[in-house]
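Data card: per-record layout.
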Amino acid sequence: MRHASIPEALSRLDAFNRLWRKRRVFLAVFLATIGVAVAALVVLPVRYMATASVIVAEPEPGVANTSPAWAQKIGDPADLESQLLVIRAPRLLRQVMNAPGVVPAVIEECEHGQLLGSAGRCESLSGDPTSFIEYVDTHYAIASAGRSRVINISYQSPLPGVAQRLANALTNAFLDDQRNEGANGREVATSWLWQELQQLDGQIRAADDKIQQFRRNKGLMRGANGPITSERLTSIGQQLAAAEAARAEALARLKEIKSEQERGPSDAPSVLASRTVADLKQQLTTVSAQLASATTVLGPKHPSILALTREQGLIQQRLSDEMQNIANSAQKTFDASDALVTSLKKQMDAAKADAGSATIDEASIESMVRDTEIKRQQYADLYKKASELETERRVMLGSTRLVSLAELPNKPFFPKKLPFLAAGGTLALILGIAAALLADQVYPPLEYGATAKPRPMRKDAEVVPAGAAAALRGLEKIRALAVSRERKPQRAATSGTGTPILARLPRLRRQQAVSLVGAIMQDHVPLTLAQTLDLAEGHRAFRQALGDLMDVLRIGEGEPGRCIVVTSPASGEGRTLTTLALAHHAAAMGCRVLAVECDLQHPAFAHVLSLTGGPGLLGVLAGDIAIRDAVIRTDNPKLDVLVAGGASEKAADRLARKSLAQLLSVFRSYDVVFIDSPLPTRRHARYLSGVDSTLLCMKGDSTLAERMAAAVAAVKALGGSNVAIAATMVEPEHGTLRQPRPVPAEVYARAV
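The structure for this 752-residue chain is written out next.
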């Protein structure tokens, strides 16, 4: 985007210039309008407003109005509009007229209005309802409150008591009308519903007697959950299922025992479950073990062998007898289960026959019961509706209920001072601007360069040409500086003290200013250091200046361990930004870089680089940590940082007594060490001694040449050598300025 020149920016302020030229007309109209507003505030009669509120389509208390018609009434805006028309109806205003104390209050208000010069026929208000309605209708204000169902009934009057009485009178008349409207209809509906309920009650009693008589004649008795035949059939079915399951289990057990008996010693689960069989098997095992042991020692005819053999045979015989007993028991269990199943099947067939014959009778009873239940439901619904209508009739409040009655107004409704004066001020501002612009159009000023008649010069006018001339001379200096810079060879400039100016770092802005107002606001809303560092990385001219600095300072030329101090004579001259920008640029070029923060009074590295806090240089000076261990690694593997670690004025003074070169001599493994350090207030000759170069950052403004000698002398007094200057915050250079349209000289001088 091309830079806009100052005259071009000023040309966009033509409307403000016109207002300034006719400022007297503006002030005259503005003050006159304000005066009229203040006079009107004093002269206009004071009026009070009293407001009562009601809510419409509100369900009655204790009654659930859930009908679709009622729901539609609640949500229908047309119903609210109809209620507004009802409140304004002459019928209700006649009821208001009949309320006690209303007519004398209206007559008192009318007579008070006559005292203030208002017209009205007060005498006819007491006897002529039409005149009364026409008079009070203009004072009533009836409107809904926002999107709610609340209606505000207001009355305006110069007397606060009359406003309260009239607002409450109309509110009470509307509530009484709504209450009486629904009472008559509910009484008629309630009488009809009670007659219908008596007829239904007689029909239901007769139907119940008929059902019970039929049950007695058919023998259809009911159990706990249904007819007795059905419950009996269900019970037999359950018993039959259980008996069949038991028979199947007994049959399986019997087959298992018989099959095991044929194979020899039984291992069936039913046999093993017997305690006797278990004991016999244990005895058999013991005797068999003894017999085997004795056989190895004694002969076959030895009495002990013979006795053990007989005992073994007896145990086996008892085991066989016990297994036979178990088999016989299983057979008996199976026979009993089979007999029970046969008996239950016969009972099931009989129960099915009984249930089948009772089904027809039950169907007839169900039909009778269904008709009776329908009538009973009708009876319940009608009884509920009759009870609701009776309750509504007794506690009838209508579909509208009171929210609040009007209170006695203490503050006047009209005129209100603050809104009135605010409206007057706004109107005065609009009329003043319109009058000034119209006057400037009717009486235009002389064009720039036109010949005008000579007139006496006032004091304030004598200053304007001088300011304009100074501004023009400043613009010519900028043009000459741009031309001279284009003609200079690309080499480091030299100041009057012999100190070279290595680079001119441009001023960084968030965006280019397109007008003079934008440029002024840009100067008054400075960027943070982190934002400026981000802008520096994407600024081509800034990067080019950093590259020139690296070339002149011989950074990255194979000479490791270079120690460069970046300092400035005062704060706010771009020292920290230059240090961090050089560190990032050198790291991007492949150098191993260490950035050291020696500003112990105003540390900024940790915040700008988003680093976690550590002891830093403050901890090193206190002896809490070694200087190598205080180094913090950043996301860039080529860049390490030694932060200040906190703010301490005493530590800053202690650091100023040391030699930076000796303190940081352990970091010779880095390609370059950048040290961000302010100039100490106390002069210690060894502070900068031993460093390779000292880069002095100074604002590149018009006072650069004047401040340069003192700043260089201060650096050399601290032992600095190889001092160079970097001009910072240099305004961007422009090419040929575009010729603007003529602008009055006084406007140009004021803007600059």
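Known properties of this structure: The longest strand covers residues 48-55. The CA atoms of residues 272 and 278 lie 6 Å apart.

See the next section for split statistics.
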